Amino acid sequence: MNSREALAIGSDQKPPVLFRGEYPQWHERFMNFIEAKTNYEAIYKCLTEGPPDWPMKVVPGNPAEERPERQIRKSIGDFTKDEKDTYDAEKLAKSYLLQSLPNDIYACIDNFKESSKKIWDQIEKMIMGSHINSQLKVTNCITRYDGFKARKGETLTETYERFNMLLNDLQKNKITKTNTENNINFMNNLQPEWKPFVSHIRHTQTLEKLYLHELYEMLLQDEEEVMELIGNQKAEEKPAADPLALVSERRGKSVSRSSGKVPVLS
Q1: What domain of life does the UniProt record list for this protein's source (predicted)?
Q2: Distances 55 to 32, 42, 48, 52, 158 between C-alpha atoms, Å
C-alpha cells in the first residue's frame, strides 16, 4: 500500500483524506470513521443538521437604572453538560473534516468554515456537482457500459475486473442491469478466440440465472486453451521473410567462408 492509499483509507485516529474522483469511497470511510466515536450521534447531527444556536443566558434588569432584562451569549464556562457536549461535537466535526481535505480542495471551501454542516454541504456540491453534472455522469456510465470491450493482450481476469468496476459505477448511479444483460455484454466483447467457449455457455446455461462471477469461473477453465489460440494467431500474423534477402544473406555467408573477406553485395 502506498502513502496515498494509506491516506485515503485513514486510521482509527486520523480521518480518511478526500481525493478528487473518490468522493463516494471517502464518504463511506468518513462515516465509518465517525461511527467509531463515542459521541457519533452528536457529530453526525452537527454535519447534517448544523449546530444549534449558541446558548444564551438571561441578565436581570435594573429598574433603578432603567435597564431591562436581556439575553446574552453564555461563555463556555457557563455551558450545561449537554451544551458542552454539543459544542465539543461541533468542534470535532469541523476538525475531522478539515483534516480530511488536501490543500487543493481546502482552498475551495475555506469560506464555509463557520460550521461543519456548511463545510460538509460545500464538499458534496463541489465534488459531486450539480444535477446536470450528475445526469452527465449517468450518461457516461451507460456509454462506457455499452462500449465495453476486452483490450488486446488483456487476460480474462483483467477484463473481468474492469467490467466489475464498471458495474460498480452503474450501481452508484442507481442504474440497474439484469444478469442476462451483463453476461451477454461481457461474453460478446471478449477477444474473438473466446467465441467457441462463449457459444457453448450460451447453449448450456440459463443466462438470467447465471451470475457474472459464475460465468467468469466457467470461462477461466478455458483460458489456457484460449491463450494458446491467441499465441498461434500471433505466430501466423508474423510477416513472411523477404526471399531475395534470404538468398543474398546465404550467398554472402558462402563467399565469406571461401575467401575470408566480407562480401560486397550490389
Answers
A1: Eukaryota
A2: 30, 16, 20, 8, 58
Residue 56 bridge partners (DSSP): 73
Count of Cβ atoms closer than 10 Å to residue 244 Cβ: 8
Work out the pLDDT band at 93, boundaries 50, 70, 90.
very high
pTM above 0.90, yes or no: no
Q: Which residues are registered as beta bridge partners of 70? A: 59
Distance CA 84, CA 82 (A): 5
Cell 447465471: give the residue. 210
* Ramachandran class of 249: left when φ > 0, alpha when ψ lies in -120 to 50, beta otherwise: alpha
Distances (CA, A) of 250 to 23, 78, 174: 66, 102, 68
105-138: b (≥16 Cβ within 10 Å) or e? bbeebeebeebbbebbbbbeeebeeeeeeeeeeb
CA-CA distance, 213 to 182, in Å (whole number)? 11
Helix (H, G, I), strand (E, B) or coil at 72: strand
Domain boundaries, the chain: 3-128, 132-236
Residue 27 host element (H or E): helix 23-35
**CA–CA separation, 114 vs 137, rounded Å?**
31
